[in-house]
Amino acid sequence: MALGVAGTASADPQVIELPEDAWAQRTYLGASYGTSRWDVGFQNGLSTHPDTQAKKVWLGHDLRFAALELGWTSLGQVIQQGPGGLEGRLLSRGIGIDVLFKLPLGSVEPIVKVGRLWARTEQKGPLFATRLESYSTQDVQFGLGLNLKLGTHTMLRAEYGRYSMGNELGLGGVNAYTVGAAFRF
Predict the structure, then answer these.
(1) C-beta of residue 165 within 8 angstroms of C-beta of residue 90
(2) For residue range 111-155, what is the model confidence (pLDDT) as tens digits?
(3) What is the DSSP letter of 42?
(4) Which residues contact 176 (CB under 8 A, 6 or more apart)?
(5) Is 133 helix (H, G, I), strand (E, B) or coil?
(6) pLDDT per residue over 20-60, tens digit each?
């Protein structure tokens, strides 16, 4: 964008080039998919299947050595089977806010992520005699990852995330491994 400024000693306007909007190209939208593993306390007589799918969608704003992200996370479900074929499921999803610290090394950026997850975990199925239907938690999350920039508008991300899920159902946490892409606009 050019801006004309009239000088006091000369009638000729000077042209000053202003940089592009400082906020442009720093906002990005991304999504990732992977696997999660729940730390489920094992109980006698139950068959537990703690491996499941993890999905994430995030909106972020990039700074030089940090970024701020707001996202939705689905940590999938755990299926437990008991005697007589009774089955129960734990499902968890939530909204989180994270601060990412990064080390820009050209097109590669190692990241460290810390934040807070407001999660809703539901307990479903006839296996659970306590019938605790759902509970909400506000837990800490952290992660490590790597961003790979593919030009000015696209990046790929591989990430490990650890989500603390509280002690309400004997869950120590969830480990999520995801890969995804983000697009700047």
Answers:
(1) no
(2) 999 999 888 877 777 766 655 555 566 778 899 999 999 988 999
(3) P
(4) 34, 35, 36, 37, 54, 56, 73, 75, 159, 160, 161, 162, 163
(5) coil
(6) 554 457 899 999 999 988 876 655 555 566 668 999 999 99
Residue 104's identity, in one-letter code, is P
Q: Which of 154, 143, 145, 153 is nearest to 103 (CA)?
A: 145
Which residues are CB-neighbours of 97 under 8 A, at least 6 positions away? 68, 69, 70, 71, 115, 116
Tokens matching residue 112: 């460290």
CB atoms within 10 A of CB 124: 15
Q: Torsion-angle region of residue 35: left (phi > 0), alpha (psi -120 to 50) or beta?
A: beta
- For residue 21, what are the contacts with CB-CB under 8 A and spacing of at least 6? none
Residue appearing with tokens 């002690």:
167
| 49-98 residue pLDDT tens | 666 899 999 999 998 899 999 999 998 887 777 777 777 777 788 899 99
Q: Which residues have CB under 8 Å from 9's CB, separation 6+?
A: none
